[in-house]
Amino acid sequence: MEPEPYCATDLPSVPAVATAEPGVPVADCVLCGEPTEHPATVSGATLCPRCEWQQAQRGACSG
Ligand SMILES: [Zn+2]
């Protein structure tokens, strides 16, 4: 008699930068308050595409 296989919980791999699916509440941009492309469940500061671009520009120019 073989024991019953343990029911493993197969969690789907989540991408590092998750994009919100339709119907999922999105997080607000921490800079301008505009809705971002990231789901509200994402931790950390969320930026809208425009602010992300501006941050990238600042990073590129500073040093
Ligand atoms: Zn923004």
Task: Tell me what you see in this structure.
The radius of gyration is 19 Å and the shape is elongated. It contains 1 helix and 2 strands; from the N terminus they run E-E-H. With 63 residues, the chain is an alpha+beta fold. A hairpin with a 6-residue loop joins strand 1 (26-28) and strand 2 (35-39). The mean pLDDT is 82. Helices cover 21% and strands 13% of the residues. The chain has a domain at 26-61. It has a two-stranded antiparallel sheet. The protein has one helix spanning 49-61; strands at 26-28, 35-39. The structure holds zinc ion (ZN). Residues 29, 31-32, 34, 47-48, 50-51 line the site of zinc ion.
Shape category:
elongated
How many DSSP E strands?
A: 2
Helix content: 10-25%
What is Rg? Answer: 19 Å
Structural classification? alpha+beta
What series of H and E elements makes up the topology? EEH
- Average pLDDT score: 82
| Major sheet | 2 strands, antiparallel
The number of helical runs is 1
Q: Identify low-pLDDT runs.
A: none
- Measured between the Cα atoms of the first and last residue, the distance is 68 Å
Strand content: 5-15%
Essential attributes:
2 strands; two-stranded antiparallel sheet; alpha+beta; 63 residues; binds zinc ion
